[in-house]
Amino acid sequence: MSTVVLSSTYAGNIHYFSKIAHFDLVETEVYDNYLRQTYRNRCQIATADGIMDLTIPVEKPDGKCIVRDIKIADEAWQKLHWGAIMSAYNSSPYFEYYEDDLRPFYTQKYKYLADFNQELEECICNLIGCKTDFCRTQKYEKEYSKDFRNLVLIKPIEDKTFKQEPYYQIFKQKYDFIENLSIFDLLLNMGNESILILKKSYVE
Questions:
Q1: Which residue, of 34, 82, 94, 121, has the greatest Cβ tally within 10 A?
Q2: Is the pLDDT of residue 75 over 80?
Q3: Are strands 50-55 and 42-47 parallel, antiparallel or unpaired?
């Protein structure tokens, strides 16, 4: 069974999900130290006004704190994020098909960021027909054979196994094609064909 280690991420981007679609098992790192300004609590969607960052507020830890223990600060963000997603994608081809699956993540209460991220990730994988299994790390390890935990960093990294496969975007005529947005963009524009785009974006 092929295994990859990834960081806990909020609605990860295409680069991130291309790894999920390629491997049989994803081990989600939850024992690393939480750092600000990463995709752990942030994703990017395309709107009529350009790229928008959606950021989940978290409680600021006193000193170092591992990702597993990071708590979501409040619930106000859920209404704001869902409103932004609806505004951006309500005219996309597949929004009406997945609206009922995604909405509960913006109404149910979540205490821990890692729990929210994992449940959303598994839901999206189910919607696109991705058969990958998931588990969490049990302790922190410095290295793994297939280690893509650095995809959580906002600064782009060099990765020869990733090449973005273009797909239909509702704002393409206005902004041309925007690479590496949140999986929300791919899912709501391409539906069950999303898995094909993800697999084509992974280069052996």
A1: 121
A2: no
A3: antiparallel
